[in-house]
């Protein structure tokens, strides 16, 4: 019993000693003292582009942040730039140029004047290029009809893809010159009042990979259509 009593007494005094010690007293044993982490910022909004990417970095309110460093490709590539004092607590635009088409994982760090570095802000994004563009399909035409008395060609369009930006319709006018009209995705019918009967229609569509994308991509070829006049 005496051994158990002595052990319990030792544990009691150790607990009492620990309670009298500041909770963060261990920090004095860390090399260089307490570690300071600058604010990493709140979030990143990624906008894809043609062999590039635009980042909208929503910064926190930490006034110590003076620059950032961005890594990708397992830190084989990087980008570093200052953070102006007047954008602290606001949004900063960052452009990453010359990116081969593909998906990327990023790590963003904030730094202060003493060289302290934040915990990483991790995110991913994608750059688009010729592979994406070569796979685009033009918005299709549902039907055509020609009103001979009004000398007007009506073109009815099928519903576009959700990321369609516009479609160019090319035709030969009654003056034998090539002309074109551009219609948005909300347009379901086109009226061409100077089309030369018997000539071919050509059309080609443009798209964004997603609604936030900063660049427009256009199908590589025009589709063509012969109009049958009844």
Automatic annotation (TrEMBL):
<dbReference type="Pfam" id="PF16389">
    <property type="entry name" value="DUF4998"/>
</dbReference>
<protein>
    <recommendedName>
        <fullName>DUF4998 domain-containing protein</fullName>
    </recommendedName>
</protein>
<keyword id="KW-0732">Signal</keyword>
<feature type="signal peptide">
    <location>
        <begin position="1"/>
        <end position="18"/>
    </location>
</feature>
């Amino acid at each position: 019993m005496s051994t158990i009593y002595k052990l319990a007494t030792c544990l009691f005094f150790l607990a009492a000693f620990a309670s009298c010690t500041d909770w963060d007293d261990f920090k004095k044993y860390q090399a260089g003292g307490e570690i300071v982490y600058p604010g990493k910022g709140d979030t990143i909004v990624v906008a894809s582009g043609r062999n590039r990417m635009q980042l909208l970095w929503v910064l926190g309110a930490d006034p110590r942040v003076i620059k950032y460093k961005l890594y990708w490709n397992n830190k084989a590539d990087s980008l570093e730039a200052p953070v102006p004092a007047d954008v602290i607590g606001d949004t900063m635009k960052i452009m990453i140029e010359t990116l081969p088409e593909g998906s990327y994982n990023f790590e963003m760090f904030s730094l202060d004047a003493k060289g302290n570095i934040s915990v990483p802000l991790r995110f991913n994004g994608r750059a688009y290029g010729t592979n994406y563009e070569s796979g685009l399909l033009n918005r299709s035409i549902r039907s055509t009809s020609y009103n001979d008395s009004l000398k007007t060609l009506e073109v009815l369009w099928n519903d576009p893809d959700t990321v369609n930006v516009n479609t160019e319709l090319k035709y030969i006018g009654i003056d034998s010159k090539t002309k074109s009209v551009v219609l948005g995705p909300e347009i379901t019918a086109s009226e061409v009042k100077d089309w030369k009967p018997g000539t071919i229609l050509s059309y080609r569509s443009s798209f964004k990979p997603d609604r936030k994308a900063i660049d427009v991509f256009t199908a590589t070829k025009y589709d063509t259509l012969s109009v049958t006049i009844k």
